[in-house]
Amino acid sequence: MGEGTRALSAIAEESIDLMTDPIERIATAAVPTPAGHYVQGTAWRDLVFVSGQLGPRPDGTHTSGEPFETQVRQALANLLAILAEAGCGPDRVLRVTAYLVGVENWPHFNRIYAEVFGDAKPARTVVPVPALNHGYLVEIEAIAARPA
Ligand SMILES: CC(=[NH2+])C(=O)[O-]
C-alpha cells in the first residue's frame, strides 16, 4: 500500500470513528434530575455540553424566591457538579452562556462568577432575557473539554 493510500485509509477510519463514537449522558445525584426532556449533560469524545442550569438545590427545592446571589451560587454549583461528573474542573471550560433576568444584575453576576471561576476565564456570553422557568433570575450553560 502506498503513502497516499495509507493516508486515505487513515482519514476514512477517522471519519467512521467520528460517526460512530458514542454520545454519553452525564448524570450526577448532586443535581436534581431534569424535569423536562433533556439530560444534565452530554459528552462526545473530549467535548462536554452542560444543559442550562437553574438553581434548584440537590433536594429539588427551588432557590428562585431567594436573593439573586443565592440563585447564582446554586446554579454555578450545579453546573460545576455536572462538569466534575464529566471529569472537568472550571479550568476545562471553553465557553459559558448565562441568561439573566434584569441586565442590572450583570455586575452582581460577574462578581460571583469571577469568585467561583477564579483564574479560569472561559469565553462567555451573558444574554438578558425577560423571564426564566420557575421564576429564576439566572440560567447558566457550558461547553468544556475533558482531559484525554
Ligand atoms: C432548564 C432547562 N435547561 C431546560 O431546558 O428547560
UniProtKB/TrEMBL annotation:
<dbReference type="Pfam" id="PF01042">
    <property type="entry name" value="Ribonuc_L-PSP"/>
</dbReference>
<dbReference type="InterPro" id="IPR006175">
    <property type="entry name" value="YjgF/YER057c/UK114"/>
</dbReference>
<dbReference type="InterPro" id="IPR035959">
    <property type="entry name" value="RutC-like_sf"/>
</dbReference>
<protein>
    <submittedName>
        <fullName>2-iminobutanoate/2-iminopropanoate deaminase</fullName>
    </submittedName>
</protein>
<dbReference type="GO" id="GO:0019239">
    <property type="term" value="F:deaminase activity"/>
</dbReference>
<dbReference type="GO" id="GO:0005829">
    <property type="term" value="C:cytosol"/>
</dbReference>
